[in-house]
Amino acid sequence: MKELKADEIDINLSNIEMPESTKNVKLKANFVYQSRAYEALKDAMKLDNKNYNIFITGSAGSGRHTFVREFLSQIVSQMSTPSDWAYVYNFSNPFSPKALSFSPGKAKKFKESILGLKKEVLESLKRAFESNDYTKRRGELEEKYGAKRKDLWDSLNKKSSELGFAVQIGPTGIMTVPILNGKLLSQEEFDVLTMDQKKFYEGNLIKLKRLIDGTLHKSRVVDIEFKEKLDKLDKEIAKFAIDPIFDDIVVQFKKSADVVEFIKSVKNDLLDNLEILRNDQTDKEKFMSRYDVNVVIDNSTTTGAPIVEELNPTYANLFGKVEYYATMGTLQTDFKFIRPGAFHRANGGFMILNAEDLFRSELSWEALKRLLNSGTLKIENIQEYLGYGITATLNPQPIPADVKIIMIGEPWVYELLYSYDSDFRKFFKIKAPFDWELDLESQGIEYYLQLLRSAIDKKDLLH
């Protein structure tokens, strides 16, 4: 191979019409010059299989990335816009947040609806528990069970008097004091009683203690019954107040059984925690933050399938992470701190990756293979992925993965991976070779000018 100097190279373009400026180059849709790569991509689009991902080989600067983006831009508008996804609180297992699916654009609306619902619920509950109806019915319950308690203690006092004792309730509990001729006896007065009188009191004291134990038991039963009746009344009043609010949001999202189930869980949790919501000393906003919605995939502004090109394919950038916040010297987290990765944004569409960049992070490649093997997007931090997490963390429910990967790299990278990594051969079955030479003819020159114009427009350069 001989190295040529610049003055030894003679390119004759006299027979080819050249524009005066790249400004005069008109970009054409579906302009094809890299026919082998084009046909390989076309074939790959027909195969709906996780193993038929694409590796485009070619030299850097030959227009591989531009070619792929332009090819995909012609087809994604004809594809379905993928679902939105959000994480919410899992009432049965808070450490495993639930993943909810929505039609495109609906997750954001659901988040807004829940924020409005929280405000409405607090206002409606406040009105309900300040109403005359509730005040009247609660007063009737208090009067009824107050009378039951009074009857119990009146009966105890009467029987204790017959046994020669007075029953007193003090700060340390129930006390029994002997009575003689209607007068409470002091310890000194009791000590000077006759032996028969002392035996009388001592015998009756055993009977009285049994009566006191029985009365205390009956009193606890009355208290429990009162609390049950009061809780039932509170739930009845609260349910009547908030049912219309929840019914409205259920109607909006009735097509998703999982979303409706979550809405019902929120309502049941509210009804189970009325004491917290009615206590003026509690931070209601903090408590109700468990009902918030963390949207991790939002396709409200997406038309067709997404195209994502991750230029810094670290593990966290690709697959997401769980963030933490410090409180009282410890690290804590919850579902609101789940952060998505590039694969979440690309779900339902296409992910473009540079092979050399990807393989600089061994974890990224291993996690990508796990994604393709499992068919799911699972968010976990590197520490947990490697098995040495030292902080309690979350285990979010995985999201179904549906993404076609287009990897771009030098030919030697492809050959190396194909020869030594069986998983690569399994998942990247389609090779799209990119020609690094152009024939010196009008179509080849036009293709090169198309690349120049596309790059200039993308980077906002001067013509």
UniProtKB/TrEMBL annotation:
> Lon protease AAA domain spans which residues?
304-435
What does the entry give for GO biological process?
proteolysis
Alphabetically sorted, this entry's keywords are: Hydrolase, Protease
Start and end residues of each Lon-like helical domain: 84-113
Q: Sorted alphabetically, which Gene3D superfamilies does this protein's record hold?
A: P-loop containing nucleotide triphosphate hydrolases
Q: Which InterPro entries match?
A: AAA_32, Lon-like_helical, P-loop_NTPase
Q: Where are the transmembrane segments?
A: none
- What's one GO MF term for it? peptidase activity
Q: State the protein's name.
A: ATP-dependent protease
